[in-house]
Design brief:
This protein is mainly alpha-helical. About 55% of the residues lie in helices and about 0% in strands. The chain contains 17 helices and no strands. The chain is globular.
């Protein structure tokens, strides 16, 4: 007789508990074996986006070639033009040339836009997940990581990428195993970070940092990004590098923003090594942290 899998972790429901007696039998999968056997596949992003991401890592990239690649993707081209014409870049004239838009936006902002749009295009409707909430968390973490990086001696652009992609493994798991995702997450409060990883281990047999690291490796992102994402839910350790500390701090800030914590509470929630870099002499948030946290609270996704 096959017994229904009973998760080791549960969530505090915002609705009535699932009637397990009426549910279909749900067995814990083996994600790695399913990938190896070809039963499931990792999500893909458009080839033009992959080529652009790789090209934009070259500091001497020819922007004309970037423009030539962009015109192959009308949706991405439209988003670049919209960004170039936005108030952030002046927005005083209507720009219709991709080459001019690329020059206006700059390589850094263009790279962030292309990564965000390319990755988000892989996920439409995911069982158990409110995508607007998910991408807001991701954008808050990415922005926080980028701003924390200089004081923690980490690469700011790699930090941004880690923040944006660190939880995408959860999307992949829920998209791959929708039945489990519906039982475990639909109608329940959002859970993040290490708590979410623990629930995933019980439900899927693997957690989102491991899956996310596997995915970013398959897409050709730097190994340092994959390694940092893989450790995202672990407790701080002596072997942590600057990028590990940045991502943990950024994830903590994203959770604080989601809870609508005050700046003082958000600072206290940071890992000790990160908190010390953003505390004034009296232990309160310094001016830079207060300004950053205020900006994070106003973040809205535009994917």
């Amino acid at each position: 007789m096959i017994q229904a899998y009973v998760p080791a972790f549960t969530l505090e429901p915002t609705r009535k508990a699932v009637d397990t007696s009426a549910a279909e039998v749900v067995r814990r999968p083996n994600f790695i074996n399913d990938i190896a056997a070809g039963r499931v596949e990792l999500p893909t992003i458009p080839r033009v986006v992959q080529r652009l991401i790789a090209a934009l890592r070259d500091p001497d990239v020819d922007t004309r070639k970037i423009g030539e690649a962009l015109v192959q993707d009308p949706v991405l081209s439209a988003k670049v033009l919209r960004l170039a014409n936005s108030a952030f870049f002046g927005g005083q004239r209507s720009m219709s040339s991709i080459d001019a838009a690329v020059a206006m936006v700059g390589i850094q902002a263009l790279n962030r836009l292309i990564v965000a749009c390319g990755v988000s295009s892989s996920f439409k409707e995911i069982p158990g997940i409110d995508l607007r909430t998910f991408w807001r968390d991701a954008l808050v973490a990415a922005t926080a990581a980028n701003k924390l990086a200089p004081r923690l001696q980490a690469d700011a652009e790699e930090a941004y990428t880690c923040g944006l992609l660190h939880a995408t493994g959860h999307l992949i798991l829920c998209q791959t195993y929708p039945e489990i995702a519906n039982v475990m997450f639909t109608g329940f409060a959002v859970v993040r970070g290490a708590d979410l990883a623990g629930i995933e281990m019980g439900a899927f047999g693997i957690d989102h940092p491991a899956v996310g690291a596997l995915w970013v490796e398959s897409l050709g992102f730097p190994q340092s990004v994959a390694d940092t994402i893989r450790k995202a839910a672990e407790s701080p350790g002596d072997s942590d590098g600057p990028l590990d500390r940045v991502l943990r701090g950024a994830s903590a800030l994203a959770s604080s923003v989601a809870r609508n914590d005050s700046a003082e509470v958000a600072l206290a929630a940071l890992p000790a090594g990160v908190r010390a870099r953003f505390s004034a002499a009296d232990g309160q948030p310094d001016a830079a942290f207060a300004k950053l946290y205020e900006a994070l609270q106003e973040t809205e996704p535009a994917l």
